[in-house]
Amino acid sequence: MAERTTLDAAATASRIRSALLSWDAIILIALALVIAVSAASIDGVANPRFWRFVTLEVIPIALIALPLTLVIITGEIDLSVASVLGLTCVVVGYLWESGVTSLPMLIVAALLLGAGLGALNGVFVTVFGLPSLAVTIGTLALYRGLAYVVLGDRAVANYPQNWTMGAIAPLPGTTIPWAILVVIALAVGFGLLLHATPIGRAIYAIGNNAEAARFAGISVARTKFWLFVATGTMAALAGVFWTLRFASARADNGQGLELAVVAAVLLGGVSIFGGRGTILGVVGAVVLLATLRNALQLAYVPANTLTIITGSLLIASVVGPNAVGMMRQRIRRRFTIPPTK
């Protein structure tokens, strides 16, 4: 009986070590440390207005990062997301100038456009069998070019104030924009889809071994196609928010945002090779990067230095999870409980 109790305690301790060494836990601990150190050393971080700006930055990045997480877990990637956002902004501005004055109609048109642009990526990847990296680099340039064709260097900025102010209105008694509730609801939805449904299990199976998944009866091409559609749709939703937040539709809206999104997804523990990752880790990484960037800006760190930091974190996001995985394996081997006779 005493031996059994000892074995149970050792097994519990091993599970606790594994949980503390999980990448999700490391990201959340890093986020807590960044918040604590920033609040103690940088004036203004503890101010509620600071967290308003962090939240405003989190919203569009998280909207795109959620579906992109699923795409990357399947072993694919979509680098055109920021260009989809920009083209969506331009089309919303063009329709507004053309006399479409209904916000719900503009949102529907934007989402349909995003779904169509994502579907085009999906067709190239799943029907023609082209590598998603090459395809989405091409559509990154194509969609951004189309944005300049539609609007040129002009900006559409005469939106109704109730639209622009309503999009970033704070929750009662706080400085946090209400739109974060939409992000939280979508994060829960994507989390349940990935971690608690057969679709999620299929996504992991495709990322681990697409051929084996195909033999198991999973429609690999169809799954990947709809994930590209979802990514385009969510990028369009982020475009609508971007347009209303800045009260401006320009062809260069969101330019370069794909770096921040991909950095957040990979830093969140999603393997660039597919088959591994969680929604919790990605959401934690999005908040971590937004907090770090805003805190450093408040400390008057130059923009070039922020870019270097983002790039360094992108490299760390590829190396880090592998290093943690190797550490966990060593600890597991060290504390493996021998079978009882």
Summarize the structure in words.
This protein is mostly helical and 341 residues long. The chain has a single domain, classed as Orthogonal Bundle (ABC transporter involved in vitamin B12 uptake, BtuC), CATH 1.10.3470. Helices cover 75% and strands 0% of the residues. It contains 14 helices and no strands. The chain is globular. The mean pLDDT is 90.
Write the layout of secondary structure elements.
Blueprint lengths: L1 H19 L2 H19 L6 H26 L7 H17 L5 H24 L5 H20 L9 H7 L11 H18 L1 H11 L1 H6 L4 H27 L10 H11 L11 H20 L4 H32 L7
Helix pairs in contact: 2-13, 3-8, 3-9, 3-11, 3-12, 3-13, 4-5, 4-6, 4-11, 5-6, 5-11, 7-11, 8-9, 12-13, 12-14
What attributes does this structure have?
globular; mainly alpha; single chain; 341 residues
How many angstroms does the end-to-end distance come to?
Answer: 14 Å
CATH class: Mainly Alpha
Mean pLDDT: 90
Number of domains: 1
Would you identify the CATH architecture?
A: Orthogonal Bundle
Low-confidence stretches: none
What structural category characterises the helix and strand content?
mainly alpha
CATH topology: ABC transporter involved in vitamin B12 uptake, BtuC
| Percent of residues in β-strands | under 5%
Tell me the helix content: over 70%
Quaternary state, please?
single chain
Helix tally equals 14
What overall form do the CA principal axes indicate?
globular
**Number of E-type strands:** 0
- Cα-atom radius of gyration: 22 Å
What are the secondary-structure elements, in order, as H or E?
HHHHHHHHHHHHHH
Sheet bearing the most strands, described? none
